[in-house]
Amino acid sequence: MALCPTCSTVIPCHCHLAPPVQVRPGVYLVQETHPCTTPPGDRPHHREVRPPVTVAESLAQTVRALGGLWDTQRAVTALHDTGHGQGDQRQQEKRARKAMRDLAQTGLLVKTQDRPVQYRTTEK
After folding, report:
1. Per-residue burial over 25-44, b = 16 or more CB atoms within 10 Å of its CB, e = otherwise
2. DSSP state, 47?
3. Is the pLDDT of residue 80 over 70?
């Protein structure tokens, strides 16, 4: 925290200023400076903040890039490579199967086999 040189009010850290404003889907602007410290005619400094990528979004990006057939192990490997490899093997497999079900609901994957579960991509 600091004092504003213009109005002598306490300037909180950036996480206590105005909430982020969504400018397009998935992209938010966060005000970083106190309004009094901005020179007249200048816009407040902003930075883009992206919300964390969900497991399904991460897998969707990989599926679109690679295409083909997807089973649980391939999804687990892809999610691990994108930073979603937390937990033991059982938890990772559950997370991967859930993400594949979510992608099947959106139409990106189509289920071709039940046990063991297998999907194929609809886009390439």
Report:
1. eeebebbeebeeeeeeeeee
2. E
3. yes
